[in-house]
Amino acid sequence: MPEPKATALLPADHPPVPPRKVGVLLANLGTPDNYDYWSMRRYLNEFLSDKRVIDFPAWKWQPLLQLVILTKRPFTSGANYKLIWNHDKGESPLMTITKVQTAKIAAAIGERHGDAVMVDFCMRYGNPATATKVREMVQAGCDRIVFFPLYPQYAGATTATANDQFFRALMAEKAQPAARTVPEYFGHPAYIEALAQSVERVYAGLERKPDVLVASYHGMPKRYLMEGDPYHCKCQKTSRLLRERLGWEKGSIDTTFQSVFGREEWLRPYTVEHVADLARQGKKNIAVIAPAFSADCIETLEEIQGEIQEAFVHAGGETFTYIPCLNDDAAHISALVTVIEENLAGWV
Ligand SMILES: C=CC1=C(C)c2cc3[nH]c(cc4nc(cc5[nH]c(cc1n2)c(C)c5CCC(=O)O)C(CCC(=O)O)=C4C)c(C)c3C=C
Ligand SMILES: [Fe+2]
Ligand SMILES: [Fe+2]
User: Fold this and answer.
1) What confidence score (pLDDT) does residue 1 get?
2) pLDDT number for residue 4
3) Which parts of the chain register pLDDT below 70?
4) Phi/psi class of residue 188: alpha, beta or left (left: φ > 0; alpha: ψ in -120 to 50)?
5) 84 with 103: CB under 8 angstroms?
6) For a FRET experiment, which of 58, 101, 157, 185 has its CA 20 to 30 Å from that of 293?
7) Which of 130, 133, 248, 141 shows the shortest CA–CA distance to 200?
8) Binding of Fe(2+): at which residues (predicted)?
9) Is 218 annotated among the ligand-binding residues?
10) CA nearest ligand 1 atom 35, residue
11) Cβ < 6 Å from ligand 1: which residues?
């Protein structure tokens, strides 16, 4: 029997009570609102002040960040964002792709559950803020939220800080919804399948099969691994699962790390050095895939296809094939929807 409409029984001055729903809140890293100095500075300041990202004590880190890094990096980084910016939409590729992913996931979830589940996205840094989206969901009647950080491999600097921000947002809600956070999904067969299909699709269009596939993951300080962050191991496992699904022999995929920031040692090998070594060893045709990114962003569009490709060519490399992130590929959307459905179990 359908539930009676609660609002009909309420006193006249009672606040409206929307029908109960489940919220699915996708979360990605975030991106600047624009590439000018102040937009970049605001974004980088929020990002690089996060203790999950840079764990130095504030008294040591903040003077360096505010007085040195944030006077220069907004210009250099802003110039890089300008190169990849979606000027017609006035936003970065990460923003555009996240919007498309959300719309496609919302359509698929809507087909299954109608209005009982609402889907939206938020960013850890910048806009739309996590707290804004949690508030909107609560106001729309969500008394349960599935929070989904779109990082296939867990890292403190990504998954954990996104969750922290979600929990902080929940702290501010009078009607606090029940909450679930979706764990990393690099080992999910549907995700590995989507990744493998993207390799097969690109390879099918190549005249010459690459000598090696480089799986380049965003890096982090090596110290974080030594202190217990399992991200490194998750990346290694992703490469192995991809290789096994492709049916390739051991040694056919190299796992490397990119985007080194600061003076500390980061996870090795560094992609930019490794591709140059490959070219010098005579591996003149390579392909590069970036399985840590659920959407193409500055680190893939500018760094891999810019600096990293240049290092390869400069060292004598000939063919550099970039395999795009899974973005809004049908197999990727279907994998994400499967993961969401598994985490909605018992709630719908
Ligand atoms: C995918 C996983 C990511 C990890 C792990 C990660 C760690 C990490 N990042 C920085 C510093 C920067 N990262 C920047 C951009 C950026 N990083 C990720 C993902 C991970 N970062 C993404 C998806 C993006 C792209 C955002 C976009 O708008 O396209 C930047 C900003 C760009 C720049 O100035 O270079 C910085 C800075 C650190 C220190 C870190 C370590 C734990
Ligand atoms: Fe990063
Ligand atoms: Fe490891």
Assistant:
1) 40
2) 46
3) 1-8
4) beta
5) no
6) 58
7) 248
8) 218, 299
9) yes
10) 77
11) 29, 31, 47, 53-54, 73, 77, 92, 94, 151, 155, 157-158, 218, 220, 231, 259, 261, 292-293, 297-299
Give residue-wise pLDDT tens across range 256-274: 999 999 999 999 999 999 9
Query: The complex's ipTM?
Result: 0.95
Distance 18 CA to ligand 2 centre (A): 39
Residue 147: CB atoms within 10 Å: 25
318 is in an annotated binding site: no
Evaluate the CA torsion angle 172, 42, 48, 123 in order and state its sign: positive
> Where in the chain is CATH 3.40.50.1400?
16-185+332-344, 189-323
Cα 52 to averaged position of ligand 3 atoms, centre (Å): 19
* CATH for 16-185+332-344, options being 1.10.3470.10, 3.90.550.10, 3.40.50.1400, 3.40.50.720: 3.40.50.1400
> Which ligand lies nearest the alpha carbon of 95?
1
Q: What pLDDT, on a 0 to 100 scale, did the predictor assign at position 7?
A: 59
pTM of the predicted protein model: 0.96
Q: What is the pLDDT of residue 9?
A: 81
Ligand 1 atom with the smallest distance to the CA of 32 is: 28
Nearby residues of 287 by Cβ (< 8 Å), 6 or more positions away: 199, 202, 203, 206, 210, 212, 213, 214, 320, 321, 322, 323
Q: Which fold has domain 189-323?
A: Rossmann fold (3.40.50)
Ligand 1 nearest atom to the CA of residue 151, by list position: 1
